[in-house]
Amino acid sequence: MRYIMSKAVLERYEALFEQMRGAVSARSSDAAVVVQVGSATCENAAGAPSVWREFERHIKASGRSDIVLHRVGCTGRCSREPIVGVLKPDEMPVKYEKVTRDAVHDIFTSHVVNGAPVTSLMLDASGHGAKYQLVLCAARHCGAAVDGDTEKTFREEIAAAGLDSDDVSVLAANGFGFCGMSPEESAVCVLVRPGNTVYFIRNRDDVRRVVREHLGSGTEVSALRCDAEFVSRRFFSLYGDVAFFNRQNRIALRNAGVIDPERLDEYVRYNGFRAVANALAENDPEAVIAAIEHSQLRGRGGGGYPTALKWASARKSAEKTRYIICNADEGDPGAFMDRSMLESDPFSVIEGMVLGGFATGASRGFFYVRAEYPLAIRRIEHALAQCREQGLLGDNILGSDFSMDLEVRLGAGAFVCGEETALIHSIEGERGQPRIRPPYPTENGLWGKPTVINNVETFANVPALLVYGSDWFRSIGSEKSGGTKVFALAGKVRHTGLIEAPMGMTLREVIYDIGGGVPGGKQLKAVQTGGPAGGMIPETLLDTPIDFDTLGALGSIMGSGGMIVLDEDDCMVDVAKFFMAFCQDESCGKCTPCREGTKRMLDILERIAAGNGEPADLDKLERLAALVQKTSLCGLGRAAPNPVLSTLRRFRDEYEAHVTEKTCPAHKCKALVRYEIITEKCVGCRMCARQCPVACIAGERKQPHEIDQSQCIKCGRCYEVCRFDAVARQ
Amino acid sequence: MNTVVKNTDNREEVRRKSMEALTPEIVAHIEACVQDAQPHSHLIGVLHKVQAHFGYLGADQLDAVAQLLQVPTAKVTGVATFYHFFRLEPRGKYVISVCLGTACYVKGAEQVAERLQEELGIQYGETTTDGLFSLEGTRCLGTCGLAPVVMVEDEVFGDMTADQVPALLEKFSKTED
Predict the structure, then answer these.
(1) Sign of CA dihedral A286, A291, A296, A302
(2) Is B85 in the A-facing interface, judged by CB distances under 8 Å?
(3) Cβ-count burial of A26 within 10 angstroms (0-12 exposed, 13-18 middle, 19+ buried)?
(4) Which of A282, A699, B90, B151 could be bridged to A705 by S-S, CB 3.0 to 4.6 A?
(5) What is the pLDDT of residues A177-201, one digit of tens each?
């Protein structure tokens, strides 16, 4: 009986898979060109909708039916949006940056119609001149190499074959994720583009064959080829922007920027809901939990609690009514991972929640989403409706005896609702105030029932690790933490954006190799991780491998993934004050240490920034911080002092400069800055006087000017506009 | 605790008054929520709908929601005042939200906010006397790549500088002429 049911579930899934794959290829198989346009909130803000309309107009005017316009989510290149991708079979994918309506015309006429890519508009033109591109896998956990140095071996063989840089460009990637698929342990993965052929290379002979046969005469070496469809194959086939992406390893973001977030068929086509089908066919919830345990998946919301333990704990409960909640109340300022994931691929999260429901025995689940994310909400609702239509949600999923449905509940702008007990109160329609734990929600949660709450990213990882294997997932990552982490890279960094890196990568690699370093030749001062609950990591510790434990040991936290780069112009006291003001404002007021403690700490920080601090204030601040940390009721209060404590620990000299010398070394704290005109340098051009918003700069033309200090509001305008460096900032 | 009183002497009268304070769609939505096993859990969702329609939560609307959802007005007010997203005062035609996120802060959102306050002559949470603009500080909008960011209604303006403020305001006040 059970066997028959299993077979029926799998058959139903395979039928659905074929149907959806057919639908996808019917849309694109005849296409000579696919034009991809991003469509997440950032993309839209940067002007993607008008770019889309412009392409529509051009395609219509051209009368061509073989040009397909494809909507995708976010590729993570926030600072370069709108992003447009042009994909042609047998050609290297090309991504264009900051596309305007005028640029659409150039791209369309030159590239789409006439086949000549517009190099000046490309996101990354490096390697685009060559006929072939070789991407070598250099996963940190693997260590496989051909003759000690794969890249060198390839370059030698390429030269020996008489090929040059016009023929082949060679790039090193961080990791493809084909690990464990090779017939032999020590093989290296190599991707050849265009065409996206993946080879397993064992020795110099293999290198020679690939170079001579594939690169030299255009014949694929089928004996070395890997034909398995794997998580990153589609990813590498769609990104033209290799320099930014090749250091990443995308699992949670595997479909972001690849699929149309409003089409279930595109998700299913890439093995979407296969994990659900397999789990339902096997009908062994314990096995799902065991696989997750083996994968070492830890909660991506910040705490890093092992997901399997949480699920197993809910499963153990005597109470049979259980709930699953996806925490998408992304309140950390400077963090936008969840928004982007939900806008780019809501299906992965839904599938993760269904698997969570199956494993824990819950039949009802909730998305708790910030009301500030209207597009994400719309896309989730849309995805839920499509899943219900195909029998992937609702009664008897895929014909099995497991039923589950999900609904969306909105937050309303309260940071504390990211705390799980507060979140539960909010879903119940109450003020979002936390309560003391234990009991933990897995025993006593929503409406008193066992409840599992996981973050968006945690759920998005679950289907991938079940389909592609928990061994594989575990191998990517650090010793105690499997997989990757998504970061929202922002602040003073060249490539702001959404990135996903394996656990164990160093902060320096993330910021310099992926993020491109600090712009404007400025010096990096610190990296802020974990938002208002996190801390500042100074430049000297950038070589720390990132995972939950290492960042914790540095006095910061992984948090949900906000990573803000601060440079020499940022004052650590000011940043600590910023976070304290945030926590003070967001304190729910239930417990005294947090309500009063954050207020007093903010008072002291404001006093210091205003130049009225005393040396004793630093000790006071430290004592108070320790007290709030120890005695607050929930995570918000307990973590609120972290930015203060970590800046005091790492940048005490800056605090001391504020209280003893009354100066702000970064010239950020207005009360401690003074602008003056250097008489010898001033040529009297009147530039500063014209720009001064309070008209406090006096002086005749061609005569040195003077600032009336009593009127100066210290806006810094004069300092910025002077072309003769005649304004001094002290 | 969660029992819903379905019939009282003045039920019809209360319903009529509440319908006047709200719209038929919202009333229908609330009445559908009342059928749910946990009707009170829909309170925040209902308040979102009310605010989306009226632009703010007036005292009459809060009363009506309380009556129809059978929740004490004190609790409805408690919830409405707890969450930042809910406004209890009418707002201007265009709500200008300055993102107060970390990325915007380190990239100079303060200067933009100061310029907005200067040009409009209002502080955060206030509305201009002509009822055209309201100024608000908002929690991170999640578009950190475009920092600093200002949102007017639902339109996001990225890479803002203080100098772009007058032109931005003009763009919206002009459409009024």
Answers:
(1) negative
(2) yes
(3) exposed
(4) A699
(5) 666 666 666 788 888 888 888 898 8
Q: Do B142 and A562 touch (CB under 8 A)?
A: no
Give me the residue from A42, A433, A491 closest to B143, CB to CB. A42
Distance CA A610, CA A133 (A): 56
Q: Is the pLDDT of residue B1 over 50?
A: no
Query: How far apart, in whole angstroms, are the C-alpha atoms of residue A37 and residue A43?
Result: 9
| Contacts of A112 by beta carbon, 8 Å cutoff, 6+ apart | A33, A35, A58, A67, A86
Give the β-pairing of A168-173 and A132-137.
parallel
- CA A713/CA A690 separation, integer angstroms: 15
The confidence score (pLDDT) of residue A175 equals 67
Class of domain A572-661: mainly alpha
Instruction: Answer whether residue A91 shows pLDDT above 90.
Output: no
Per residue in A582-625, pLDDT tens? 999 999 999 999 999 999 999 999 999 999 999 999 999 999 99
User: Which chain A residues are closer than 8 Å to B103 by Cβ?
Assistant: 333-334, 490-491, 496, 564
Residue of chain A whose Cα is closest to the Cα of B43: A429
Query: Hey, which residues does B137 pair with through a beta bridge?
Result: B98
How far from chain centre, in Å, is Cα A197? 27
Q: What local confidence, expressed as pLDDT, does residue A691 receive?
A: 87
Q: Which CATH architecture has domain A477-567?
A: Roll (3.10)
Can you name the CATH fold of A132-239? Glutaredoxin (3.40.30)
Residues A75 and A64: their CA atoms lie apart, in Å, by: 27
Fold of the domain built from segment(s) A31-121: Glutaredoxin (3.40.30)
**Mutate which of B36, B38, B44, B98 to disrupt the A interface (most A C-beta within 10 Å)?**
B44
- Integer Cα distance of A362 and A449 in angstroms: 10
Give A388: exposed, middle or buried? Use CB within 10 Å, 0-12, 13-18, 19+: middle
Instruction: Report the alpha-carbon distance of residue A525 to residue A567 in Å, rounded.
Output: 5
Q: Is some CB atom of chain A closer than 8 A to the CB atom of B52?
A: no
Delimiting residues of CATH 1.20.1440.230 domain(s) in chain A: 572-661
**CB of A561 less than 8 A from some CB of B:** no
Q: Is B35 on the interface with A (CB under 8 A)?
A: no
Residue A640 near residue A598 (C-beta atoms within 8 A):
yes
For residue A330, the chain B residues in CB contact (below 8 A) are: 142
CB pairs under 8 A between A and B: 140
Provide the CATH number for the domain formed by A674-729 in this structure. 3.30.70.20
Instruction: Report how far residue B89's alpha carbon sits from residue B121's, in angstroms, rounded to the nearest whole number.
Output: 19
Determine the Cα–Cα distance for residues A479 and A4; give it in Å rounded to an integer.
41
**Where does chain A hold its CATH 3.40.50.11540 domain(s)?**
264-475
Per-residue pLDDT, A546: 93
The chain A residue lying nearest B97, using CA atoms, is A372
Tell me how far apart the alpha carbons of residues A359 and A308 are, in angstroms, rounded to a whole number.
10
Identify which of A722, A729, A555 has the alpha carbon closest to the alpha carbon of residue A652.
Answer: A555
Angstrom distance (rounded) from CA A306 to CA A310? 7
Residue A362 to residue B125: CA distance in whole angstroms: 43
Give dist(CA A569, CA A591) in Å, integer.
Answer: 36
Enter the tokens of residue A450.
């066992």
CA distances from A612 to A572, A573, A675, A711 (A): 17, 13, 20, 20
Could you read off the pLDDT of B15-34 as tens digits, one per residue?
Answer: 888 889 999 999 999 999 99
Q: Report yes or no: A626 at the B interface, CB cutoff 8 Å.
A: no
CATH of A264-475, one of 3.40.630.30, 3.40.50.11540, 3.20.20.70, 3.20.20.120: 3.40.50.11540
Residue range(s) occupied by CATH 3.40.30.10 in chain A: 31-121, 132-239
Decide if A663 touches B, using CB distance below 8 A: no
